[in-house]
Amino acid sequence: MVKHTLPGTCKSLPFDNGFFPPASVASVLKSGNMNLVLNNNEPGNFHFCKKVIDGAHFVSMPEQQIETELQLKGGYDNELLDSTCGYYTHNIDHGYVLAHYIWHESAGRYVTNYRNTIDDISSMFQRRLERLYEICSSHGNRFYIYYSPQQYKTLKIDNDIYDLTDMETIKDQLDKSFPTGENIILCFSNIIRKNKNNIFYLPAADYIKFCKHAEYRNKKN
């Protein structure tokens, strides 16, 4: 997960909910596009997925197969739907998996089939991406927080394996996207590496303490 500002300090940003390996974040920043596309009214540049091994592996699965398995499992299974009954959605263009955006009909927030709202979802992501660019472009020095408390160091989507420890990929793209000033990454995770190139590695357990301290400072100021 990438958190570009502290919780509660700004409106939603593009990487708020889902599974985003560093390469996918860099890919989105480079392209400036997060659109989800339908081809002949069926998923075009995205697939629905089944979660395997506690989020370390996702396997693409047709919508009808998900429905069949849900019926066999009493209507809900966290491997098939996220905690809010949204589909795990693999963006093929960038290599990440969304959660909490495309609702299954059993979700409390469900209104209509995703085919009727996919353009609205894409527009929402574009607004969030533009908001991110605006925030970053208006500040000379920027801190980016990468928070990944899991023990695993790779994310597998179908047969593709993504390195969750590759902070250099994000840093290189940040320096290209926002060349003015400094881009500094605080990586709260179980990665043990030497700090370099404005990438600082910190224990995942320190993330909550860091947020509480920063929020205290914000209120005090």
Number of strands: 13
Sequence of secondary-structure elements: EEHEEEEHEEHEEEHEEH
As a whole number of angstroms, the C-alpha radius of gyration is 18 Å
Helix content: 25-40%
Spatial gap, N to C terminus: 28 Å
The major β-sheet equals: 7 strands, mixed
Please report the number of helical segments. Answer: 5
How much strand content do the residues show? 15-25%
Low-confidence stretches: 1-8
Number of domains: 2
Strand neighbour order, sheet with most strands: 2-8-7-5-6-10-11
The backbone outline, from C-alpha atoms, is: globular
Average of pLDDT:
90
Can you walk through the features of this model?
This protein is α+β, with helices and mostly antiparallel strands. It folds into 2 domains: 2-32 and 124-220, no CATH class; 38-122, no CATH class. 30% of the residues lie in helices and 25% in strands. The strands form 3 sheets. It has a 7-stranded mixed β-sheet with strand order 2-8-7-5-6-10-11. The chain has a 4-stranded mixed β-sheet with strand order 1-9-12-13, with helices on one face. Helix 1 (22-31) packs parallel to helix 4. The longest helix has 20 residues, at 118-137. Mean pLDDT is 90; it is low at 1-8.
SSE order and pairing:
Layout lengths: L1 E2 L14 E2 L2 H10 L6 E2 L2 E2 L2 E7 L4 E4 L2 H10 L15 E4 L4 E3 L19 H20 L3 E8 L5 E4 L2 E4 L3 H11 L4 E8 L9 E5 L2 H15 L1
Parallel strand pairs: 6-10, 9-12, 12-13
Antiparallel strand pairs: 1-9, 2-8, 3-4, 5-6, 5-7, 7-8, 10-11
Helix pairs in contact: 1-4
